[in-house]
Amino acid sequence: MLLVMGFGAQMLGWDAEFCTLLAARGRYVIRYDNRDCGLSAKLEDHPVDLMDFITAVTSGDLDRARAIAPYSLRDMAQDGIGVLDALGIEQAHVVGSSMGGMIAQKMAIEFPRRVLSLTSMMSSTGEQDYGQPTPEAQQVLFSGRPADRDGYVAGAERELVWASRRYGDAAQLRALAAASYDRAYYPAGVPRQLAAMILDGSRAEALKDLDVPTLVIHGLDDTLIDPSGGRRTAELVPGAQLLLLEDMGHDRPPALWPVLLDAITGHTTRRA
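^ that's the sequence the OP posted. Answer follows.
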């Protein structure tokens, strides 16, 4: 089972205990860092000015935007396939969260023979009419955090804006931020990942033709990727199952782990 993390987040976003519980259910669990974050390769020779990129996109100058972006979402999907290659694994169940869900969708679209099943969690289709953030969540996403460790850790609390309203935990957010900062603080990769995600555009037509067993999970409290993104994904993929969860935002609260574990292992057991 290949776990794909989201925008700007290291593999630590997949909680180690959550992974252990998946493994206890008979899954060989793999988590990894996407390119440009954590301990993966950094494209330091290709700096991206975020405001220049956003200006190019919003003005409709997509040629300029593509020239700014050094890699694509397909390249990031190929990275995940490369992890499987390095481990000698021919096929895997792929579970992606947020941008990781988009990467996982891309794996299933581009490399369907390598993907036993797809679980797209708190993600969307790339269509502009679905899955858009609230203004408050978007402001937090793009405002960045202080570069010093204390400021970075304290700034993690702002992510409560998209967390579960019932289970959101500032202490957990700070702990993850501290572990991530100490392991590999690298904000320069964020604009490049964002560029890849935005320029992938709509995957709607490809998802309509997808022939990979698919489970879509989305929290109804999610303000970073609106639940319409999950609903639309399930609507497009033939035969997809949709699980909408109350009290889940753009997070995976431990209180909901039993539900998530049951859903993911049940889906992957049927598709083994």
